[in-house]
Write a structure and sequence with these properties.
Elements lengths: L2 H14 L3 E7 L9 E7 L2 H17 L6 E3 L6 E5 L3 E7 H7 L1 H4 L4 E4 L2 E2 L2 E2 L1
Parallel strand pairs: 2-5
Antiparallel strand pairs: 1-2, 1-6, 3-4, 4-5, 7-8
Keywords: Cytoplasm, Repressor, Translation regulation
Organism: Denitrificimonas halotolerans
Subcellular location: Cytoplasm
Length: 120
């Protein structure tokens, strides 16, 4: 499966459970650990868990085997490692505190869906 296709599946799964402020960051030129980071917010611990669990379910349906996940127990910040795509789902306060978007500034960033050529 192409990375861009996996990004679309993840974004769709997040939108399905009403994630807020979904951002895709292309980090291929910044790090070798992953190609894309997707960051999204949930309004509560319960929603963060539901968002992360929905992403895991949808990618598994497509034959993707997640490398790992963390934070599903507390729901403050869930991290899903899908190898070439890393997903961060956080409560809004946690997201504002860690400000991953600023940390990765300079990487190509887009809101929502990817195009065939890359970020919109």
């Amino acid at each position: 499966m192409q990375n861009e296709q996996l990004v679309k599946i993840v974004i769709s799964a997040l939108e399905e459970v009403k994630a807020k402020d979904i951002i895709t960051i292309d980090v291929r030129e910044k790090t070798s650990i992953t190609d894309f980071m997707i960051i999204a917010s949930g309004g509560s611990a319960r929603q963060v868990k539901a968002l992360a669990e929905n992403v895991l379910e949808k990618v598994k349906e497509q034959g993707v085997k997640p490398v790992g996940n963390e934070g599903l127990d507390t729901g403050e910040w869930a991290l899903l490692d899908l190898n070439d795509v890393v997903v961060h789902v956080m409560q809004e306060e946690t997201r504002a505190h860690y400000d991953l978007e600023r940390l990765w500034q300079g990487a190509e960033q887009s809101r929502g869906q990817m195009t065939e050529q890359g970020a919109e």
